[in-house]
Amino acid sequence: MRRYGKHTDEDDIRTRPNRKGNRPRTHIRPKHEDAAEGLVLTVDRGRLTCLVEDRTVMAMKARELGRKAAVVGDRVALVGDLSGTKDTLARIVRIEERSSVLRRTADDDDPYERVVVANADQLAIVTALADPEPRPRLIDRCLVAAFDGGLEPLLVLTKSDRASPDKLLELYGALDIPYVVTSREELENGGAADRVREQLDGKVTAFVGHSGVGKTTLVNALVPEERRRVTGHVNAVTGRGRHTTTSALALPLWGADGWVVDTPGVRSFGLAHVDPSRVIHAFPDLEPGTEGCPRACGHDEQDCALDAWVSEGHADPQRLYSLRRLLATRERKEGD
Fold this sequence. Notes:
This protein is α/β, with parallel strands linked by helices. Helices cover 20% and strands 22% of the residues.
């Protein structure tokens, strides 16, 4: 039963106030057609540093985006104060569609995905040949994450003055992954940095690797005007380095057209989010053979059609072995 009429104008009618003291919620969201385009360079405690034209602008995420978060590499739309002057703050009102996403989970039992970087073309997996020893299981996991996210992998092997790269390169030969071998002396002289730079030209490249492998040293050589604090020390007991990069940071590649995204050193790379059906896309010689696979095939089962595909001569058996080795990393820890 209505207490008041439809068009009542009584002054004593009470309306329920908004407990937060702000304006009532609405499902109508502003379109912001005139918003400026920007690139997210780094994220720190809810504040995002963005490149807008030729200046850096500090911004925060607009409330209308809800739980959707912007990450390094995202192309975004901004409104507000875009001057980039001190103590100004813009708002990110839109996150554009991503062309690729590098994701990881804390471990294989963690259902929560963490986006490391968006819109990268390439994943540079930095691995020391000695001090600390190479961790092929971690390399495999990074490769799976790259294939799953739509990034092209690149192996960057450091400290070649302490160990030969031949054994490690033989392990990944069937995958036909491009690689660069470097040494500390070459980095100091600039020769190795130039070879790496050639592989990065015209691309957005995310660098990943566990602590102590020389990743930050390499980034400093590639972007000399953006000096980062270098560790240079590896724990003599554990063989592990100390973290020097605490958040992802996009830097313009010096002497070429491209971007370098330096990411924090990782100790694990969980793959709980990975679907084998996406990883197979990185193996175009094997992918047609999956047409005869049973539904939801993990490509390591008895009924997998890839065995017959390879036995008929359509692909190299080593390629199938490499695929299955990579997929098996989802079930085993890096140190296994």
